[in-house]
Design goal:
This protein is α+β, with helices and mostly antiparallel strands. It has three domains: 122 residues, Butyryl-Coa Dehydrogenase, subunit A, domain 1 (Orthogonal Bundle); 104 residues, Butyryl-CoA Dehydrogenase, subunit A, domain 2 (Beta Barrel); 143 residues, Up-down Bundle (Butyryl-CoA Dehydrogenase, subunit A, domain 3), CATH 1.20.140. The chain is built from 13 helices and ten strands.
Length: 382
Amino acid sequence: MTLPDAFDADLLATPLFDDAHRDLAESLASHCADRAERWARLREHPPAEACRRLLRDIGAAGWLDHLRPGRPDTGLRAVCLRRQALAYHEDLADFVYSIQELSAAALARHGTEAQRRRLDGLGTGERIGALALSEAEAGSDLAAVALEAAPDGDGFVLNGAKTWIAQGDIADLLIVLARTGEGPGPLGLTAFLVDAEAPGLKTEPIPAIAPRSWAEATFTDCRVGPDAVLGERGQGYVVALDVLDRARVTVAAAAIGFARRAMRLAVERARGPRAYRGRLADLQLVKASLADMDLDLAAASLLTARAAWAADSGRDYAKASAAAKLHATEAADRITDAAVQVFGAAGLVAGSPTERLYRQTRSLRIYEGPSEVLKMAIADAL
C-alpha cells in the first residue's frame, strides 16, 4: 500500500502538519500494510481474545511507547494519524489502540505522580485500560450518572452499574465516573481508578453488531482507597469532558480511515465490471455518487486536521472537535452506504470488506457523543 491509500498526501503537505507527521504517516502506512493479513486472521477468534492479541502486537511494535512515564507526548495529530491508518487497514486494531490511548490520556493528564506510574503497563500493551462512563439511563447525558461512590472512612464504596464499556471485559484498570454528591448534576461527580480484580466488581461481555470487546460492569460494595480518586473530588465531569473532547477528534480520524477504504473499493469496482454497455464508472449517477464521496471525505479530513491542529496548538478546540466528529462520522456512513450501492448484491455478502465497513461506521455516529448532541454543542458555542 502506498501513502495515498490510507492518507491524503496533499492534506499532509499543508502547514496543518509538519515533517514529523509526514514521516509518521509514511511509516504507519507501511507498518499496517505489512500486518493487515495477519491482523485479519485474528477475526477468527472471539472478540476478547482478538483484542488482547492485537493490543500486545501494537504494544510490541512501539505504537504505545509515548504513553509510558517520562516519554514526550506526540500530540493529537499523531494520534489521529495512527487511528486513520489502523481504521483503513483493520478496524479491531483501531479499536484497541483508541481505547488504550484515551484511557492513558485521562491518567496522564489528570493523575498524580504515583498514579501515572501505571502508565508503564498501558504503554507496553501488557495491561489494558478502559473508560467506564456510560450507564443504561445516562448514556450521552453524563450529568445523569447515578453510580454511587459513598464515602467510607478514608475511601469510597461503589454501588451501581456501567455499560457499553469498550474493552471492559478484558481491562486491568477502569476509569470510572461516579457520584460522590458534592452537588447536583455534573457538580457531584468524581473519577476513580478501579482495578479489575477489585472485590465487588463484575464484568460481563455485551455482543455488538461489529464484534468488539464490549462489556457491562456491576459494582456491589466495591471499596476503593483515597488514592483511587483521579483528579479532584467533585471534578469528574471535567475529567470526562476533557477525555471526550480529545476522543471526538480521534473518532473523526477513524471515520476518515473507514471512509477512505470504502471509497477506494467503490472506485475500483466502478472501473471494473461492465454494465449497461460500459463500465459503472461511465454512468452519470455513479459518477455523481463518487464525486459526493470525494467531497465528503475532503471536508471531513480538513475539519479533523483543523481540530487536531488546534488542540496541539493549545487553542480552545471543543467546538472544532464536535464539528469534526459530527461531519466525519455522518460522512463515513454516507460513503460506506454509497459504496455498498456501487457493489450491489456483492456488497451485502457477510464478511466482505464493504459489509464490514457498513457495520463499523454505523456505531461512530453514536459513541463519544451522538450526532444530535454534537449539533446542540456546536449551536451553544455560536
